[in-house]
């Protein structure tokens, strides 16, 4: 568990912003920096301070681990996420590819929830997360998992408490200046990964 006595974006466990993940002209995403950005995203669950979010955190962390394992097994074939997927599938395996599919859904969920909440200052986190869950992960979950995740959404902290936790003594305008590019970077990555994971290149 990360030390939450410091602001989220200054936390030693925050290794990489999504805004700083290299993406080339063909929209190929650098695997190593993507993994670091996703590991940094997981830290935000410590600031949510809701044990009910443990299944959500576990789901995202587990899928990051699958991608990291494949990257370390075959770094030369996995420099970008697209290469990792294509080369894993050539080897008749799909553990990391399936992990990336679920991780993409999880990242889309986090982006939609935090973007909506950041945009609407009167909306509580529980509303933003519930709406985002319905749009992203829920259609892919079975009955029992839906109940677990849906219950977790109701345990979000109050909006003001969450942003105080994330920013600590950071001035609101400074926190916003950190949050905006992070969310924009996450949006760009999700926008690339969703169609790629739906393409024939990512089918097993």
Automatic annotation (TrEMBL):
Note the SUPFAM superfamilies from the entry. Answer: Glycolipid transfer protein, GLTP
Q: Which GO terms describe its cellular component?
A: cytosol; membrane
The chain positions of domain Glycolipid transfer protein read 29-167
GO terms (molecular function) for this protein are: ceramide 1-phosphate binding; ceramide 1-phosphate transfer activity
Task: Please indicate if the UniProt record lists Transport as a keyword.
Answer: yes
Q: Which Pfam families match?
A: GLTP
Keyword presence, Aminoacyl-tRNA synthetase: no
Q: InterPro entries from the entry?
A: GLTP_sf (IPR036497), Glycolipid_transfer_prot_dom (IPR014830)
For this UniProt record, the keywords arranged alphabetically read as follows: Transport
**Protein name, per record:** Glycolipid transfer protein domain-containing protein
Give the source species.
Coniella lustricola
């Amino acid at each position: 568990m990360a030390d939450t006595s410091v602001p989220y974006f200054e936390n030693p466990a925050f290794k990489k912003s999504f805004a700083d993940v290299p993406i080339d002209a063909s929209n190929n995403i650098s695997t190593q920096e993507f993994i670091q950005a996703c590991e940094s995203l997981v830290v935000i669950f410590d600031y949510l301070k809701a044990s009910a979010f443990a299944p959500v955190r576990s789901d995202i962390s587990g899928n990051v681990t699958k991608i990291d394992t494949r990257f370390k097994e075959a770094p030369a074939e996995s420099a970008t996420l697209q290469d990792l997927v294509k080369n894993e599938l050539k080897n008749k395996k799909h553990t990391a590819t399936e992990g990336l599919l679920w991780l993409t859904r999880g990242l889309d969920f986090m982006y939609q929830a935090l973007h909506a909440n950041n945009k609407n200052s009167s909306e509580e986190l529980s509303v933003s997360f519930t709406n985002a869950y319905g749009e992203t992960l829920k259609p892919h979950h079975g009955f029992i998992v839906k109940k677990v995740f849906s219950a977790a959404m109701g345990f979000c902290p109050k909006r003001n408490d969450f942003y105080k936790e994330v920013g600590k003594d950071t001035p609101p305008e400074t926190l916003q200046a950190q949050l905006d590019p992070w969310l924009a970077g996450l949006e760009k990555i999700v926008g690339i990964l969703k169609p790629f994971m739906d393409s024939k290149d990512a089918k097993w």
